[in-house]
């Protein structure tokens, strides 16, 4: 059985700035953009492999990790990045409710792409009970901490509508750049980190494009606070378990897979 780790020592290394400091709790998704509920959480390995005997970890108020210091949590994510991410998801929720009948399903949402990208990557860093030491952790940290980097070097951020109540966070897995058959798989493997919660999913990867998804970093201007209207296709809805599961895919787990989480609003027994 695989047990999930949501916290480290009270004083430990911050997942973002790498300083030894008092660690604070970070919610994924960030508070303010959605209603926090009680959740049942299982490891990504259990979620992917199934099995009869399942173990869950419960949390009263959403998925959260004690993994980052106060200054990264409040000074960086809380005060600068999360407001942009939460406004973005709130705007999409409103549009999903009011404009689902648009013939083409294309909407454009105004946001600050540079700050949105930093929020996504910042929470991918914080959403781990371990201090990550992969090549991608280093790249993620460098990007989140350096204001002169408007978009993450060598990385793309793909996004799509995710109309499901589960929360999934998967870090640093290998998947074929092209889904399909073995012939497609032979065209190469990319490294993917995935964060999905209602109403949107994000993938950060070193591949140039992926399965026709919209891509965020192309909208990053020359300033962090630049605004842009980014394109969202409301009709491009994938399965809840996409992209990690599918006959047209293989998933190669690295060290990060053990920290991945799948969470659902807690089911109440009827009586
Ligand atoms: Zn920190």
Q: Would you summarize the structure shown here?
A:
With 271 residues, this protein is α+β, with helices and mostly antiparallel strands. The chain is built from five helices and 14 strands.
Arithmetic mean of pLDDT: 90
Bulk shape: globular
List low-pLDDT spans.
Answer: none
- Give me the count of strands: 14
The computed structural class is alpha+beta
Tell me the helix content.
10-25%
Organism: Brevibacillus formosus
Protein name: HNH endonuclease 5 domain-containing protein
Index terms:
3-stranded antiparallel beta sheet, HNH endonuclease 5 domain-containing protein, 9-stranded antiparallel beta sheet, binds zinc ion, alpha+beta, single chain, 271 residues
Q: What is the secondary structure topology, with strand pairs?
A:
Layout: E1 11-13, E2 20-27, E3 39-43, H1 44-49, E4 57-59, E5 64-69, H2 70-99, E6 106-111, H3 113-126, H4 135-145, E7 156-161, E8 167-176, H5 182-185, E9 189-197, E10 200-205, E11 214-215, E12 228-233, E13 252-253, E14 261-265
Antiparallel strand pairs: 1-2, 2-5, 3-4, 3-14, 6-12, 7-10, 7-11, 8-9, 8-13, 8-14, 9-10
The protein binds zinc ion (ZN).
Protein name: HNH endonuclease 5 domain-containing protein
């Amino acid at each position: 059985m695989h047990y999930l780790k949501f916290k480290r020592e009270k004083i430990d290394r911050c997942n973002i700035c790498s300083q030894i400091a008092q660690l604070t709790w970070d919610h994924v998704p960030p508070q303010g953009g959605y209603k926090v509920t009680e959740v049942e959480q299982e490891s990504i390995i259990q979620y992917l492999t199934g099995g009869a005997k399942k173990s869950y970890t419960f949390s009263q108020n959403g998925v959260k990790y004690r993994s980052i210091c106060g200054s990264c949590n409040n000074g960086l994510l809380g005060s600068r990045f999360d407001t942009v991410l939460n406004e973005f998801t709130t705007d999409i929720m409103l549009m999903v409710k009011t404009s689902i009948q648009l013939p083409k399903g294309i909407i454009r949402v105004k946001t600050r792409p540079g700050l949105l990208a930093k929020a996504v990557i910042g929470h991918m860093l914080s959403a781990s009970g371990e201090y990550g030491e992969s090549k991608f952790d280093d790249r993620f940290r460098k990007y989140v901490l350096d204001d002169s980097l408007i978009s993450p070097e060598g990385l793309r951020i793909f996004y799509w509508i995710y109309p499901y109540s589960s929360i999934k966070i998967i870090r640093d897995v290998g998947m074929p750049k092209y889904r399909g058959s073995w012939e497609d798989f032979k065209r190469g493997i990319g490294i993917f980190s995935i964060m999905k919660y209602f109403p949107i999913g994000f993938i950060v990867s070193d591949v140039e494009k992926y399965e026709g998804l919209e891509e965020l970093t192309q909208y990053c201007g020359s300033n962090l606070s630049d605004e842009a209207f980014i394109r969202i296709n409301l009709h491009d809805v994938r399965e809840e378990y996409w992209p990690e599961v599918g006959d047209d895919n293989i998933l190669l787990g690295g060290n990060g897979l053990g920290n991945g989480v799948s969470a659902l609003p807690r089911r109440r027994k009827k009586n």
